[in-house]
């Protein structure tokens, strides 16, 4: 293997040993979190392993909707994911790589993988990495079931510095995380080798995929539909990256908090699904370092440090989706204010329908529902107000996570769990005495309607996302 271009610390062996490759009919990359061909360290590792052992290369992918009631089971999310995978399948066929779609989504994904292994005698599996419980449990179960004559490798293809390399514990503040990431950054921030045409062909071609049949057979919430502005796939995501570099980056550091300015990359749907790699985005942005140094630094901080700190939080804090995952000072303070009188109390349905008394909050919620993405700065306000208008912090966390994951194209992501816990429960946002302590929030940082409307002329935003009569 050409290890010179691949830092082996990116990869860990979860089951078996590489010897299994000698008796395997191929290497299969189970593409889970990172749906792209190029710029994908898990794909690169898979191809190098296949070349080393003179084996054909397969890609396995499938929808993993074990619970149709889970918030992210919507037409919007499924179409985005399938669109991305369809592009991957096409690229694979052009490169002589067999793409298997693991259909029968009512069957647990591991059963579908094991069935593929049995039918093809492919014993060597590589997968990517997610710190979230469902994916981790699934991979743990797969590694337990895979059998002694097989092997399972995992590659962190999402972060620049692999999550388990950056730190072996929960990092409580960005300053420490930044230091740890930057210490190893240059080692891992290397150009991606290109996935090339695979010279060893599989004995049997993969079955033809009927994408329309797959689309129509999935049972999801049809009321949450695709968004015109966000077309799925790496090709479209990379075009958006280019648009950001030429049109948005210049004003990113100055205007990224302004909900009425077009200063954000809007890349999160593609980054979340792995259709675009954060490392590729940073490579593109860094080419403008001489022109817009502040914006470049800020973008790198968000796309690498804050995002990789979210993976760190979800990997090392098992309560990343509930109040127990908050720091002790925050839990104590929120508990002290549990009984505080709430001037407004809304149910999840009222929040969902944007039926609060606050036109700015309602506009943010409507933006989320219509566009599948809320402006980043508004996300903070939106979540904090859910705390203020809910009967408890626990309830606020579950409401915010449900709405975020149900409507956002980038939902059910470590950034989302961490963002909600940051806003409502003080995660990564240590108490500063100058904020003071206030009802309901206790020592959690507060954000007011006036603090936004005084800073930005928000009237167009409110008009644009008005609750329909
Ligand atoms: P840009 O500012 O252009 O940033 C580029 C990329 O950097 C983002 O796509 C993201 O990958 C990363 N990034 C930016 N800000 C953050 C941050 N604060 N924390 C971690 N990574 C960041 N992000 C999601 O990807 N999915 C979510 O479901 C999600 N839910 C959130 C919920 C709340 C309540 C809050 C406060 C934040 C949430 N975020 C979430 C984080 C952040 O708001 C989004 O990543 C950002 O708004 C995405 O838009 P963008 O790509 O245009 O951002």
In words, what does this structure look like?
With 469 residues, this protein is mostly helical. The protein folds into three domains: 1-158, HUPs (Rossmann fold); 234-316, Serine Threonine Protein Phosphatase 5, Tetratricopeptide repeat (Alpha Horseshoe); 323-464, DNA Cyclobutane Dipyrimidine Photolyase, subunit A, domain 3. Helix content is 47%, strand content 6%. It contains 19 helices and six strands. It has helices spanning 41-52, 75-94, 109-120, 133-145, 163-166, 174-188, 211-217, 234-255, 268-272, 278-286, 293-316, 328-336, 348-352, 359-371, 376-388, 393-407, 414-425, 449-453, 459-464, and strands at 11-15, 27-30, 57-61, 98-101, 124-127, 151-155. A six-stranded mixed beta sheet has the order 1-6-5-2-3-4, sandwiched between helices. Helix 10 packs antiparallel against helix 11 (293-316), helix 11 (293-316) crosses helix 17 and helix 16 packs antiparallel against helix 17. The longest helix has 24 residues, at 293-316. The radius of gyration is 23 Å and the shape is globular. The site of flavin-adenine dinucleotide has 28 residues, from helix 9, helix 11, helix 15 and helix 17. Flavin-adenine dinucleotide is lined by residues 256, 264-268, 271-272, 302-303, 306-307, 310, 376, 379-380, 383, 404, 408, 410-411, 413, 415-416, 419-420, 422-423.
Task: Break the fold down into its secondary structure elements and pairings.
Layout: E1 11-15, E2 27-30, H1 41-52, E3 57-61, H2 75-94, E4 98-101, H3 109-120, E5 124-127, H4 133-145, E6 151-155, H5 163-166, H6 174-188, H7 211-217, H8 234-255, H9 268-272, H10 278-286, H11 293-316, H12 328-336, H13 348-352, H14 359-371, H15 376-388, H16 393-407, H17 414-425, H18 449-453, H19 459-464
Parallel strand pairs: 2-3, 2-5, 3-4, 5-6
Antiparallel strand pairs: 1-6
């Amino acid at each position: 293997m050409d290890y010179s271009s691949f830092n082996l610390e990116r990869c860990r062996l979860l089951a078996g040993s590489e010897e299994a490759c000698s008796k395997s009919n191929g290497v299969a990359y189970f593409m889970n979190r990172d749906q792209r061909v190029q710029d994908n360290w898990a794909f690169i590792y898979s191809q190098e392993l296949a070349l080393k052992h003179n084996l054909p290369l397969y890609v396995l992918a499938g929808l993993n909707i074990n619970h149709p009631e889970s918030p992210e089971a919507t037409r919007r999310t499924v179409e985005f994911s399938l669109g991305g995978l369809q592009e991957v399948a096409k690229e694979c066929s052009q490169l002589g790589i067999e793409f298997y779609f693991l259909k029968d989504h009512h069957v647990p994904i591991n059963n579908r993988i094991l069935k593929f292994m049995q039918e093809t005698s492919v014993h060597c599996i590589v997968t990517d990495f997610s710190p979230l419980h469902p994916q981790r449990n699934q991979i743990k179960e797969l590694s337990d079931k895979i059998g002694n004559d097989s092997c399972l490798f995992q590659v962190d293809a999402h972060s620049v510095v692999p999550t388990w390399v950056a730190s072996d514990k929960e990092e409580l503040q960005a300053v420490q995380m930044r230091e740890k990431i930057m210490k190893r950054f240059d080692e891992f921030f290397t150009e991606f080798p290109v996935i090339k045409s695979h010279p060893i062909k599989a004995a049997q071609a993969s079955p033809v995929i009927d994408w329309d049949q797959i689309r129509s057979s999935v049972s999801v919430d049809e009321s949450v539909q695709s968004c015109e502005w966000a077309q799925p796939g790496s090709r479209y995501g990379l075009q958006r990256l280019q648009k950001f570099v030429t049109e948005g980056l210049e004003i990113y550091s100055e205007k990224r908090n302004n909900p009425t300015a077009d200063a954000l990359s809007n890349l999160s749907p593609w980054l979340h699904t792995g259709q675009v790699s954060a490392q590729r985005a940073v490579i593109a942005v860094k080419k403008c370092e001489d022109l817009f140094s502040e914006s470049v630094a800020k973008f790198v901080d968000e796309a690498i440090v804050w995002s990789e700190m979210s993976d760190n939080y979800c990997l090392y804090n098992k309560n990343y989706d509930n109040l127990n995952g908050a720091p002790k000072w925050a839990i104590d303070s929120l508990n002290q204010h549990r009984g505080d009188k709430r001037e407004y109390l809304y149910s999840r349905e009222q929040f969902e329908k944007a039926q609060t008394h606050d036109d700015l909050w309602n506009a943010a919620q409507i933006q989320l529902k219509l566009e599948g993405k809320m402006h980043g700065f508004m996300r903070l306000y939106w979540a904090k107000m859910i705390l203020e208008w809910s009967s408890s912090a626990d309830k606020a966390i579950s409401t915010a996570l449900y709405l975020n994951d149900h409507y956002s194209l980038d939902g059910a992501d470590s950034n989302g769990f961490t963002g909600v816990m940051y806003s409502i429960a003080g995660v990564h946002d240590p108490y500063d005495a100058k904020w003071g302590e206030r009802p309901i929030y206790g020592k959690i940082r507060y954000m007011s309607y006036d603090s936004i409307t005084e800073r930005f002329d928000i009237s167009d935003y409110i008009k644009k996302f008005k609750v329909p009569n």
